[in-house]
Amino acid sequence: MNASATLPPVCPQCGQTDEVCRVSDLVHDEPDSLLAQKLAAPRSPRPAAVIGCATSFFATMVSISAAIFATGLTELTSSAPRTNLLFGVRDTSVFTGIITFLFVFVGVHAMFVWRQARASRYFRRAFSAWHHASERWQQLHYCARCNGVFLPGQTALTPVEQVQMLLYARRPPQQAATNPANAPPSGVEGG
Predict the structure, then answer these.
(1) Are 64 and 90 members of one domain?
(2) Rounded distance, CA 109 to CA 53, Å?
(3) Per-residue pLDDT tens over the stretch 23-61
């Protein structure tokens, strides 16, 4: 076992360990304190709503309404001869109503499916960001002396008010390059 793994983390600002504690322990031990509320774990995003029966019912009702309107409008403006269909409606009016129903039904459903897909993509991105933020939060430490938070190896202290920015940063915070294995690749091979 590595000896440095058992040592408490050192605050990057004051260089001390005596006032440093893990944020998850602080939040667990003092859940009602203002500090614990500021340092609370990131909240999981809510999943996207799922298309259900109400959506199908809505699409059907809108489609029927549009079909009735299109049938009536065609009936009033058409000069085609009347047939023996129900209510003496013209063939062109019936055809127009059926086509209108189909197009509106498919269009309304397509709109809902598009919105569902967009919400699902947003949720997947938000869930991924939350997962990374939660992993960082588990590693986060608080220095009471400096009133800031840091990740082990971080070279600067982050104010408590900016903890969410630290957790949700796209790039990991700057780490101290203590040994060549932790140093970023230079992209140029020597030798």
Answers:
(1) yes
(2) 12
(3) 999 999 998 999 999 999 999 998 877 777 888 888 889
